[in-house]
Amino acid sequence: MTVSPNPEGQSRLIEEIIDKGICVRCGACVGLCPYFHFFDGKVVVMDRCDADTWNCLQLCPRANPEGDILNESGGIGSYKTVTMARATDKEIRETSQYGGTVSSIIISGLQSDQIGSAVLTDRGGATSPEGRLARNRKDVLDCAGSRYSASGSLSILNGCIKDGEDRIAMVGVPCQMEALARMRELMPDGEERYGRVSLKIGLFCTWALDYRQLDAFLKKEGVKDPVNKFDIPPPPSEVFRVQTQGKWRDFPLSQIRPFVQKGCSFCQDMTAQEADLSVGTVEGIEGWNTVVLRTDKGAEIFNEAIEEGWLETQAFPEDNLEHLKEAAQNKRERGKKSIIKGVRGQAWE
Ligand SMILES: Cc1cc2nc3c(=O)[nH]c(=O)nc-3n(C[C@H](O)[C@H](O)[C@H](O)COP(=O)(O)OP(=O)(O)OC[C@H]3O[C@@H](n4cnc5c(N)ncnc54)[C@H](O)[C@@H]3O)c2cc1C
């Protein structure tokens, strides 16, 4: 990724990103200074700051439309191989979102000591999902499954780096992987701080929902019990599924789409190109994950999870790969169009 420092500060971040409602709540700006906090699904500003470090603006994936994650060679960016994988462990498979590949890799890495801890996203409860530092199998399983709203979990990464944590795995959506790359490249001590992240697992993502709007909608629809699981089955299903007490309720996606975070419309990355490996669903094949291996580190830890018996794999169907590339390219085009349309106004100038 090629990035250039942006010589502006907190006031621009507030005016152009937070006040315009296009913050994607990745959490990159939280935990670096006392002025930002993540509260119930949103980044809130505690006070104005006139420091001349400007980290917050430079790191923001929405404040930097030129932040060239765009590898024009293909919709899913550069990769070594794409394969299908799923957990061999029954409990992981039952608890996780699809095939449990992400949870298996983290558990495998913790047990072999390749990683010391992992920044994951919890399930939320009375408030929105949030980042959580996982150190063992139980922690990982407590966080398994997808919450389709932002968790600000980079704030937990910032905090644990401050506390001296090392060999950290970070699991996150594409904007979080981009912010992490920016942090490492642009902060004066970026290499020293974010070099402590030894594994980046990216999740495929088309969009995330505004937690507070989703929560209000579900309450209005009578969903009062804690949600065990959410799911958005691949097209053409067009439903958003919510499971409480073992029972699924389906809502038409058209009812949910209005809650998509405004900032997601500018995103051009569906498959988390800045990650070491990226994981998503496999369209048309239930219970398996698509795995895009991108770096030596990603391939090494993935292969180790197979060798240690945590994962099984199958060849990825050629048709699925073509379709994945097309879907990722479509997201790029949509993001580019939104940027060109200048919906964000001055932020792009
Ligand atoms: C907002 C969002 C949108 C997504 N959109 C798509 C999509 O369009 N297409 C697709 O193929 N896949 C999408 N995914 C990824 C998919 O839902 C699964 O996370 C992925 O396939 C891994 O499955 P698994 O069975 O290995 O997961 P698991 O083993 O259950 O692990 C899932 C991991 O995701 C983490 N997590 C959960 N919620 C969040 C969150 N909000 N932010 C950051 N991390 C989180 C958990 O900490 C957990 O470690 C999306 C995920 C999210 C969070």
Give an overview in words.
The structure is a single chain. This protein is α+β, with helices and mostly antiparallel strands. It folds into 3 domains: 59 residues, Alpha-Beta Plaits (2-Layer Sandwich); 208 residues, no CATH class; 48 residues, Nuclear Transport Factor 2, Chain: A (Roll). The chain is 33% helix and 19% strand. It has an 8-stranded mixed β-sheet with strand order 5-4-6-7-11-12-3-13, with helices on both faces. Strands 8-9-10 form a 3-stranded antiparallel β-sheet. The C terminus is likely disordered. The protein binds flavin-adenine dinucleotide (FAD). The site of flavin-adenine dinucleotide (FAD) has 33 residues, from helix 4, strand 4, strand 6 and strand 11.
Brief write-up:
By secondary structure, the protein is an alpha+beta fold. It is built from twelve helices and 13 strands. The strands form three sheets. It has an eight-stranded mixed β-sheet with strand order 5-4-6-7-11-12-3-13, with helices on both faces.
